[in-house]
Amino acid sequence: MFKGSIFDEVIKIKRKKILIAVIIGIIGIFVGSSYTYYRMTHFNKNVEINGINVGGLNKKQATKKLKSKSVSNDVYLNNKLFYSGKKTVSGFSSQDQPKIQKLLKKQWTFWPSKKSVSYKAIPSKMGNYRQREIRNAVAEKLKSENEKREKAVDAKAVLRDGKVGVDKAQKGNQYDIALILKSFNKQKYEQNVYLKSKIAQPLSAKSKTVKHEKKMLEKLLAKKVEYTVQNTKYDFDAKQVLNEATYANGNYQISQTGINKKIDEINKAQATLGKSINFKTHAGKSVTVASGGTYGWAIKNSDAIARIISAFKKNSTTTQLNAKSDIYGTGYLTYGTGYDNTTNEGIGNSYAEVSISDQHLWIYKDGKEVVSTNVVTGKTSTNEDTPKGLWYVMYKESPSVLKGSESGSENYSVKVNYWAQFTNSGCGFHDASWRTNWASNAYLNDGSGGCVNTPVSQMKSVYDNLSQAEAVVVY
């Protein structure tokens, strides 16, 4: 009996212990499950979403808090207020709970964590005020600030006077706006924007870009343009005529100075426009014909330079050009006259010769005299002399009505059968049926208003043997 009682008592104690352990286990499981559930449905203490602390909140509470918060939209540069924006709504709504749930799972840790963690979430109703207005305003303000700062100068390869070298980079203190705005773009949904200044750095002399520039300039240095003017060829060697050149963005920038100088030298040596000439008259006498007339040609520097620079930019080592495309003239024919004439001081062998002292006209074709006639030129007593110089036949017209003014006749209008103008002022050859005085001294007091009056009987032959652009020599 005694022994059985003791045994029973032991059994009772064991059963109590088991029961207690089971109860404790059940409580532990419940507490553990509750804790786990809480941990899985609530954010850790120092978790932020778009700069707003959501620590200890579940997804619904966090969404509500995010929704209720306004966005300040202030922009700080190096922790100093740089631009003050207006407040806007956060843009969060109940539609954003799935996003918050994803972040909740992402931040979960088995044990509570005090680690600061920041997440970004795109609000479903986010406006574009920050990216459109504030970003543009910040960019403009940075540009304005840069105007007060020194700009960095990139290193660059330069061809100067036949040699290729590299100009060193120079540092500045202007903001690198693109880099700063890149940081701005990463903070679209934060309460405020915090930026750090980034200084624009110049291109280094050791950069691939500068090395490529140098290589391209060395290729340019080996090029040559052969420029033919009439029968003479001129070599535009890059080493000699390119005072300065650079290469950037796939294109050469070439100074015009050296090329322009050489074109000037060619014009001085060969061009005929506006120059005086030594002319051999019908009688074999040599006379100087004054400069300033319209006959002749010259190379137009701007056209020639453009073509020569374009030739240097081509891949060819040597490019051949003819100057004929670059010439110009004055008067009616602006493309120049006499370029193809390389004999007889540039007027060739087909021309008209007018002697004021002899009051006579000769016309030559291919070196042979085809017309010879007396004429009456402009009236000397009233300073209406036919202008001396080297001119050309601008145009011909048959019949024609001549209108103008002269001494004794303010305005006249007269019909002629043949007309060939050779000066800008309106002087030309024409028949003069009204003229009765054809004396050799008529021009002194009874001359024309400046034209070369030609007898009616001779004018058709004169007209037929005059050709547009051919020289008219008056001396």
From TrEMBL:
Q: Which GO terms describe its cellular component?
A: extracellular region
In terms of InterPro entries, this protein maps to: LD-transpeptidase, LD_TPept-like_central_sf, LD_TPept_cat_dom, Transpep_catalytic_dom
Name the SUPFAM superfamilies on file: L,D-transpeptidase catalytic domain-like, L,D-transpeptidase pre-catalytic domain-like
Answer yes or no on keyword Ribonucleoprotein: no
Keywords in alphabetical order: Cell shape, Cell wall biogenesis/degradation, Membrane, Peptidoglycan synthesis, Transferase, Transmembrane, Transmembrane helix
Record-level Gene Ontology MF annotations = peptidoglycan L,D-transpeptidase activity; transferase activity
**Where, by residue number, does the polypeptide cross the bilayer?**
18-38
CDD domains per UniProt: YkuD_like
Tell me the pathway: Cell wall biogenesis; peptidoglycan biosynthesis
Example GO biological process term?
A: peptidoglycan-protein cross-linking
Pinpoint the L,D-TPase catalytic domain residues. 350-475
| Active-site annotation | 430 (proton donor/acceptor), 451 (nucleophile)
Stated name of the protein: ErfK YbiS YcfS YnhG family protein
